[in-house]
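From the shared-data thread, chain only:
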Amino acid sequence: MCRTNIFRDLATAGALCCLLALVGCTVGPHYHPPTAPAAGTYTPAPQPSQTVSTSGLAGDAQRFGSTTDLPAQWWTLFQSPQINRMVQQALENSPTLAQAQAKLKEAQEELGARTGATKYPSVGGSASVQEEQPNLAAYGIPFPNPAPFTLLNGSIAVSYALDLFGANRHLIEGLRAQTEYEAWQLEGAHLMLAGNVVTTAIRQAQVRSQIEVTQRMVALQKQELSIVEQRLHAGGASEAEVRSQRTTVAQLQASLPPLKLQLDTMNDQLALLMGKPASEAQVETVRLEDLHLPSDLPLSLPSALVRQRPDIRGAEALLHQASANVGVATANLYPQIVLTGSGGGIGTKFTSGGDLWNVGASLTQPLYNGGALHAEKRKAEAAYQEAGSVYRQTVLQAFREVADELHAITRDAEALQARTEAAAAAEDSYQIDSHRYQSGGISQLALLDAQRQQLQTALDRSTSAANRFADSATLFEVLGGGWWNAKSADPNQAHASAAR
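Structure, as tokens:
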């Protein structure tokens, strides 16, 4: 009969544990990733399949293709060894990437520490050695004091908190989401670093081209000034014409220092991106003529973009963490049960005082705390709603950036086509004026003016070409950078290695 009662008690306890475990499974929200956006395009009007084309530098048509994938090392599409080397150095030396890697490591270790502390029982041991000399007279015992002896004491204590309502599970879930967030922050830093190096190098090439053309224009204006001064001495020009030409030369010369300052600033920026002082960095010279315009441009669907953009994935990780925090706050409203046990022994060097042990359990149930726990739960729910809004805003911002770059690439091609036509017309006009000058039909001033127009249209065309290069690089960046095509696409791995 006694054995039957024991089995009945065990069955009752088992059923109670199952019921508590079932209740624990229902406490707190169960996170589900946000639904993929229903939008099928980025722009209101249908995106053309390709851009217009023209002749000359960066004049090829660019084709948009949803089946075209983006390589992880997307900057190599510009076929510039100089850019490749600078990106390589940036990925190896950037303090920004080192900081992101350290934060990821910190989050990983925090996850490991808290997982070990909550998933497994806590076991601690203690030991002590004491030299004892009893004084029997102090207790009123009229006997001689015994000889000194050594007292040995050792024990082991075990405790384990039952996670019946999922507080620890949600805590670990939140820490895992925080680790994922830091991993996506690292991936985003990697993408931004490479993008900044590429676009800065392209703008460096653009400014260098502007400086070269401007210097040639200054030389032409000085020739015109010399001719006007000669005509003044010969009585064929007025003092006002000379002063006007001097003003033109001075204004054109004044435009050179700001351009040179831009070039110096861009070189310093590249040095910073490469993780070197400006005095030590090997900032290479990039020329627009040496760049290749990628002809096939990827165009991910909006539903794919939300899985590719590191900032969107990071916002989703924060949303997941906020959901887990709601679960922690909810579980804190329910009882907490901790099982404890200890065992040990006491004795001397020659005798054993016997074994000591105890087992027990404690239950803690919040009864009244002024509504603090319920307020914490409402606070966690509000934070979850906030994280959801941040996620939606991040998605909308990403869609806008892609739409902007698609518009920019299309308009850049149209602008370059018009600039190319203007440059060709200016070239034809200069060639005609050159023949007329040789035959005595026009003056040297008219020829120099035609050459100046030729240089100005060439300068405008190089600016449009640089815009096409830069906006193509930015499109690769806003589409996510192709990290999923790297050798290791696990966001929890450090992606800053140049081996990618």
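Residues 167-234 form the longest helix (68 residues).
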